[in-house]
Amino acid sequence: MSDFVSGFWSIYIAVISLGGIAWCIYLLFSQRAWLKQSVTKVESTGHVWDGDLSELNNPVPRWWTVMYLLLCIFALGYLVLYPGLGSYKGELGFTSGQQVLQEQQAFNERIKPVYARFEAMSIPEIAKDEGAREIGQRLFLNNCAQCHGSDAKGGRSFPNLTDKDWLWGGTPEDILLTITEGRHGMMPPWSAVIKPDQAAEIAQYVRSMSGLAHDPLRIVPGKRVYDTFCVACHGVEGKGNTALGAPNLTDDNWLYGSSEATIIETILNGRDNQMPAQGHILTPEQIRLLTAWVWGQSN
Predict the structure, then answer these.
(1) Residue 68 and residue 74 in contact, taking contact as beta carbons nearer than 8 Å
(2) pTM
(3) What is the span of the domain harbouring residue 28?
(4) What pLDDT, in 10s, does the model give residues 226-260?
(5) What is the DSSP string of 28-60?
């Protein structure tokens, strides 16, 4: 798949690349006195220092010119063999992405013996192994800490991995599936059917379910609207649904915050969270050790 949105840009890059080399060659030949030119007198540039040190307009040294001509020839050869002229892929078909993939494959082959002793162990057993925990923590810091934090306690819109609250399930199998294939959790926007004052009533009812301060007079109408629009995902008791990634609304874990304004914003505008799949980045062996480390944080 080409990186260029149209054929014009591919041609543009090729013309710039070749034109730059052609211009360098032209300058080299035009400034060489020994190429169809003769220098009868070296002119002064007019710059004089200390009264007797003058700057002369001497021709470019021959070795310097030859060196740059060879570099131009090298550049042309490079552009024939490797990509550099727009969408032209080069005679060798080299890509940096393929090189990285080959290096990753070679590295994974070298470290296979490290993971070999964990193959017959279950994930809970791996979580008890000190060496496996060290490897799992390093995998987490390199691949997961950017979102979930170095302490795995997450942040706004990023789940805490050290408690018992799991959007998609906290069993070793669930965590392994989450890491391998990723997750896409979406709370649909309800602004088209729920009015802002109704959203505020839902917010009061939801806050009451988790023991937060609320307006008792708005609980009944809030529950009525909740039962109409929210119960399908979050359940009658508000315990959520791990099959849908619907959060539990009865505890004190809030991914975006528990204020009335935040809950209203969530109801009216929705939320869209995505956990990227790691199956194409990490090997199955690495994912098992990472799963064991994550599972061990709350077990």
Answers:
(1) no
(2) 0.70
(3) 7-81
(4) 999 999 999 999 999 999 999 999 998 999 999 99
(5) HHHT-TTTT---SSPPEEEEEETTTEEEE-PPP
